[in-house]
Amino acid sequence: MEHDHEKADLAVRHLEGDKSQLSDTVDDDISEEEGKRIIWRVDRRLVTMVGVLYCISLMDRTNLSAAAVAGMIDDLNLVGTRYSVVTLVFFITYIIFQPPSTVVIRKIGPRLFLSTITFAWGAVMIGFGFSPSYEALTGLRLVLGAFESGYFPGCVYLLSTWYTRYEIGRRYSVFYLLGCVASACSGILAFGLMHLDGQAGLSGWRWIFILEGVITCCLASLGYWLLVDFPDSKRKTWNFLNDRERAWIIRRVHADRGDTEVPKFRLGRFLGAGRDPRIWGYGLISFCSNTLTYSLAYFLPLILHTNLGFDIGASQCLVAPPYAFAGIYMYMMGWLGDRYRLRGPIIICNMVVALIGLPILGWHPDHKVRYMGSFFVAAGANANIPGSLAYQANNIRGQWKRAFASASWVGFASVGGIAASLVFRSQDAATGYKPGLYACITACLACIVIVCVMDLSYYLDNEKADRGEKQLETHDVRILLIAVD
C-alpha cells in the first residue's frame, strides 16, 4: 500500500519542531477557522482558474471529432487513415515539448507561462477554421501540440505545491472535473456553432474552430491576471494571499511531506528521478488510462453516428450525458480517496467500472443499452486521471523529482493518445471499432496488474521501514522519515 500516514504524522511532528527551516514571517497564531478560509481562497482562485483553462484546452484538443461529423471529413477529403493521422500528429510535438515545461514554469512563473501558451493555442485554433487542405490541418495540429504541451504538466505540478498529500485528490478531481464539463458541453456547443454554416462563406465546422479559438484567447487574457504563482515564489500575484498566509501554506505542506525547499536546478538531479522504477509505473498507468479517455474524446461522436445510428445533431449532443455522469462519479471517488486515504484501490475500482462498460458499448444488440455502456467507460476512464495523479503525488518527495514525475506522466498520457488514434481506425467503423475496444479492455487489465504490483512493492517497503531496514523517499529531502516501534 501507499506510504503509511502514520509515518507522515511522524514527519509532521518532527518538522513542526524544526523552526529554523521555516520563514520568519510564519504566524503561529493562525486559527483553524482562518486556515480553512485561506485554503478556500486558494481553491477558489487556483483550482478554478487552472480548471477553466484546462476545460478550454480539452475542448480545443477534442473538437476535431465534432468538426468531423459536421462536414470536415468531406471538405478536406480525410479519406482512409487521414483522420487518424490528423489526430495522431498532435501528440508528436506534445511529447517532444512537454518534458522541459515543468522546469520552465518554475523559472518564469505560472502566470506568464500558462496564459501565454493558452493565448497561442487559441490563435492556432482560429487558424484551424481557415485550413484549406488536409496538409494545412496536419501542420496546425503539430503546432497546437507544441503550445498545449506545457499546460497540463505545469498545472499538475503547480497544484501539488499548494496542498498536502490527502487534500490533493479532491483538487485534482475538481481540476479534471472542469475538463469533463468541457467534454460534455463541447458537443452541444459544436451543434449550435455548426448552424452558422454559410455565414461569411464559411462552413459550419469552420465556425466551431474559429469561435472556440476566440473564446480561448479571451480566457487566456483573463488568466494573466487571475493565475497564481508557487507558494514560495517572490513574484507578485494580483489580489491574493499576503506573506503571512503564504508562509502558513508553505509550513503546512513542508510538515506534510518535507519538500517545499527547492534545490538549485541541475540536469543530473532532474533526470536522476528516472532511476526510480515506480516513476515509470505511474507513467504506464497514465498510458493505460489515457488510451481510454482519448479514444472516447476522438471517436465517441463517430461511434454514435456511424454505428449506433444517431443523426449528426443527436451524436453531437449525446456526448454530454456520459461526461456529466463521469464528472459526478469522479468527484465522488476523489472524495473517497482523500477521506479514507486510498489511492491504488480507487484506480482498480475505476478500471473495473470501465471494464463493465466496454463490452456493453461494443457488443450489446440494443443500441440504447450500448449507449449506456459509454457512461461506464467515461466514468471509469476519466476518474482514473485525477486518481492516478494523486497516487503519484502521494508517493513522491522532492521538488525536481515531482517535476520529472509530472512531465513523465503527461508524456505517457500522450503516447496513450497516439495509441487511441491508431487502434480506432476508419476501416473498422463497419465492425463497430472492435479492435479499438479490445485494445481498451487490454489497457484496463494492464492498469489493474500494474497497480497491484506497485501496491505490493509499497507494502514490502513499509514493512522494511518498520523494521528499520529502509528509509523512505529521501530524494531532495533533508528530513528523513524514521521508523517507530
Please name the defining characteristics of this protein.
485 residues; mainly alpha
The total count of strands amounts to: 0
Oligomer category: single chain
Overall mean pLDDT score?
83
Major β-sheet annotation: none
Report the sheet-strand fraction. Answer: under 5%
Distance between the termini: 19 Å
How are helices and strands ordered from N to C? HHHHHHHHHHHHHHHHHH
Helical stretch tally: 18
Shape: globular
- Low-confidence parts: 1-27, 475-485
Rg (CA only): 23 Å
Query: What proportion of the residues is helical, as a percent range?
Result: over 70%
SS-based structural class? mainly alpha
How is this structure best described in words?
The protein is mainly alpha-helical and 485 residues long. The chain is 74% helix and 0% strand. The protein is built from 18 helices and no strands. The protein has helices spanning 5-16, 32-75, 82-97, 101-108, 110-128, 134-148, 151-160, 168-193, 204-226, 243-257, 267-272, 277-306, 312-317, 320-340, 344-363, 367-394, 399-423, 434-466. The longest helix is centred in the N-terminal third of the chain and has 44 residues, at 32-75. It is globular.
